[in-house]
C-alpha cells in the first residue's frame, strides 16, 4: 500500500508539472516528456533530483500475451520441418495450469482445432509438447538419412537432436541459435520414437527486468558535469556516467552489457565513436587492441557462417581508432593504428571488394542475425555476396581514415590510393543503393548470380551515409525527412519481416537512435532530433537503465530475442546526446569545433563543467536555442570560427550564446508499424515457374537476371530452358509494399552446364561423409591441397558462372570463425574468392554451394586453380578447411 501511495503521489507531482509547464517538452501519440518526468499510458518515471529517478513501469507483456501461438520443430537447429511460413498453431488455454499438445507428427501441420480465440495465456502456463519422430527414425534405419520437405538429406550420423521453435517465450524463431537453448530440445527417454519436453510459458523474466528506482552511488566527479533546465535530462546523463563505470572490467576493457561480458569489435567501436574515446581513452585503447590479431589485423569476432569474410564490418574499428586519435592527439597511437588498418584493408581488397559495382561484400553492419534482416532462403555464401548499406558506409569511412592517418604519418603513397578507393565505394553506394522515389537508400543488393535491391530502409546505414558525407547535402535532408520513423523511434529496418520476432526486426536500438540523432542534427532537422532525444530518454527513464533494445511496436523491453541492461553502446549514445548534439562538440586533428544543436523546446541555460580535452579542462556555459551561434568566447575573448585548437593547455571558460533563430519547418516520415508479405516459394517444372499464392498479395513482380521481367496477378509464368535465366518473384500487397524476392531459380540449358569432379584431379578424401556426387570428394585446408589445379575445356566463348559444391562442418551457421576461403585463379589471373561458410557443427554430409564468380572465358583450354593464399587466412588462423565435391561452370547466354 505504501508503494502504491508513493507512485500515486508521483503521478500527482508529474501532473502538477504539466500544469506548471502548460505544454510538455515533447509529446506524441504514445508518450510525453516533461522537464522532470515521462508519462506513457498509466506509467510514470520521475527525476526526484539530478541523482535519483523512480519509475513504476512494468512490462505489460505477461498480462496480455495472446493464447494464440505458432511453432514448428527443427532437426539440428535448422528450419527444415516444413515450408517457411507454414507452422503448427494452437490456442494455448491451460487447464489447471497445463496445456498438452496432441501427438504431432514431424512434417505434418497441426492446427488442433485452431480458431483465433482472442484469449490471453495465463501466467506460468506449462506446455507439454509431444512429437512423433518415428517416420524420421525409420528413414534413418532404412535409408541412412531422412529427406526433408525441400529434398535435403539429413544423415543419421549428423542427427544432433530435435528442437522446438515458436512465437511465445521461451520459444524463439531464431533457428540458428536453438542448439544453444537446451530447454528447447525434445528428448525420447523411453526410446519409443515420441519426443517430449515441458516448457513454462508466459513466465516473468526476472533476468531482464528493470529496477523501479536509481540513486547515484558511484563518484562521477572526474567526468564532465552537466546541468540544464531539465532535471530528468541531467539525471539520465548521470545515470549513463555511472553505468559507463559499471561497463569497465577489472582489466580496463569494456563490458558490453550487464549480462554480456567480453569485448566485441563492433560494439566497442560504435561506443568509442559516440563518446568513449574522450571519456575513457585508456579503456578504449585497451579494448581496441584486444580486437587486433598477432599479425596486426583487425579481428572480425562475430558474424554469419564463420565470421570474416561473410561478415566484414570489423572496419568500424578504424573509425573508432581515428576518434581516439583526434580526442587524445597520441602520435604513437596514430602510427600503430595506421598500420593495423592498412593491413586489414589490404586483405579486404583481395577478398571482399567487388570490381563490378565498386561496393564491398559482406553482412550488414551490426545486423548479424541473418534471419532478422535477410530472407530465410539466403545461405551464408549468399550473404557474403550481398552489398549492404551500413557495411559499405563503414568501409568508405575506413578508407578515408586510412588516407588521413597516412598523410599525418608521412605515408604519402597510401593517401591517394585510399582516397580513390573511398570515392569508388561512395559512387557505388549512390549509384546502386539510392532510391530516388523513396528519397533514402535501399538496404542492400542481394541475389546469387544477379543482384536486386532490397527497398527496405536500414537506419544505421542511412545515418552513417549522412554523417560521413556519402550523401550530398540535398540527399542528407531527404534521408532524414523520408526514412520511416515510428512513435517509439527509428526502427533498424522498415518495413518489418514477417514471421520474425523482434530483435533487429521490429525493434529500436538506442545506439542506432543516437547515430540517427547525430545525422538529424547534421541535416538541420529539429523535429527528427527532438524525436530522437525523446526516444532515448523515454526508454532510459521508464526502464531506469540503458537497455540494449526494445520492441518498435509497443516500446517494451520484453519481447525482443535478447536484451540487457547497462548496455555500453546505449549509454554511450545517451552521453553523446549531451556532448555531441546539445553542445555540438566535434573532434578533429586540429582541435574542437562547436556546432550546438538545441531544439527550441529545450531552450535555456546549461553548463558542461570539467570537460577534459587533451591537456586542457573546459568549463562550458551555453544559453538559448537553435544551431546558430551568436557569440562564443574563450576566457572572455571572442573565439574565431567556434574552434578551440588542439594545443590548448590548462583550465578555460567557454561561453556560448545561441542566436535563438528558429529552425524553420522540418518534417519526418512518421509511420505505423508495418510488416511486408512473405517471399513467395517458387518451383520450376516443365518450363514453367509456379508458386503458392501469397495471402493478401494483389500481384507479383517477376525478375529475370536482376531486372523486372513483368508484373502479373497469376501465380505462374513461362520460363524456357534455352538459355540462362535466374528468376525471382516478389509479392506485392495492396499498398504496393514489396516482399523480399524469392530464392533464385536458375533455368539453364543442360548442355551449357559443366561439372568437374574434384576427385578426378586430386586424391579423394577418406572421410566417410555422405551425399556427395560420383566417386568422392576432396579435402582442402591450410596444409592439405592448398593448390587444386583443374584443366578445363571451353567450347563457347562467353561469361561463365563458376561455383563449388562443398561441405564445412567446423561450426554452426551463425557463430565461430572457421569460414574457409580460397582464391580462384584462371590462367594465372586472380578472379575473386570462393567462401566456404560453416554449415553446421559436425554436419559434414550437409552440402551446399559457395558464392558464384562470373568469369569471361574464351573458347579453348584453360587452367582453373583453387588456391589458398596468405590473404585468404580467416579469423581462426588455424582451421581453414572444407570438402569440395565438384566445380560447376554455367554459361551465361
What does this structure look like?
With 893 residues, this protein is an alpha+beta fold. The chain contains 16 helices and 53 strands. The strands form 15 sheets. The protein has a six-stranded antiparallel beta sheet, sandwiched between helices. It has a six-stranded mixed beta sheet with strand order 17-30-31-35-32-33. Strand 19 and strand 20 (440-441) form a beta hairpin. The longest helix is centred in the middle third of the chain and has 22 residues, at 412-433. Mean pLDDT is 93; it is low at 1-13 and 15-20.
Helical/strand content category: alpha+beta
**Which parts are unreliable, with pLDDT below 50 for 5 consecutive residues or more?**
1-13, 15-20
- Count the DSSP helices: 16
The coarse silhouette is globular
Main β-sheet, in a few words? 6 strands, antiparallel
Secondary structure: number of strands: 53
Which strand order spans the largest sheet, edge to edge or round the barrel?
A: 1-2-3-4-5-16
Strand residue percentage: 25-35%
Protein topology:
Elements: H1 2-21, E1 26-27, E2 32-33, E3 37-40, E4 43-49, E5 52-55, E6 68-75, E7 88-91, E8 98-100, E9 104-105, E10 125-132, H2 134-143, E11 145-147, E12 153-155, E13 162-166, E14 185-186, E15 194-201, E16 213-215, E17 225-227, H3 231-246, H4 265-279, H5 281-290, H6 316-328, H7 331-351, H8 370-373, H9 380-385, E18 387-388, H10 389-409, H11 412-433, E19 434-435, E20 440-441, E21 444-447, E22 451-454, E23 457-458, H12 459-467, H13 473-482, E24 484-485, E25 493-494, E26 507-508, H14 510-522, H15 526-543, E27 550-551, H16 568-582, E28 585-588, E29 591-594, E30 606-613, E31 616-623, E32 629-634, E33 637-638, E34 643-645, E35 650-658, E36 669-670, E37 682-685, E38 688-691, E39 699-704, E40 707-712, E41 716-718, E42 724-732, E43 745-748, E44 753-757, E45 778-780, E46 787-794, E47 798-807, E48 820-826, E49 829-836, E50 848-849, E51 853-857, E52 860-867, E53 882-892
Parallel strand pairs: 8-10, 9-10, 24-36, 31-35
Antiparallel strand pairs: 1-2, 2-3, 3-4, 4-5, 5-16, 6-7, 6-13, 10-15, 11-12, 13-14, 17-30, 18-21, 19-20, 21-22, 23-25, 26-27, 28-29, 29-34, 30-31, 32-33, 32-35, 37-38, 38-41, 39-40, 39-42, 42-43, 44-53, 45-53, 46-52, 47-50, 47-51, 47-53, 48-49, 48-52
Helix pairs in contact: 3-16, 4-5, 4-6, 4-16, 5-6, 6-7, 6-10, 7-10, 10-11, 10-12, 12-13, 12-14, 14-15, 14-16
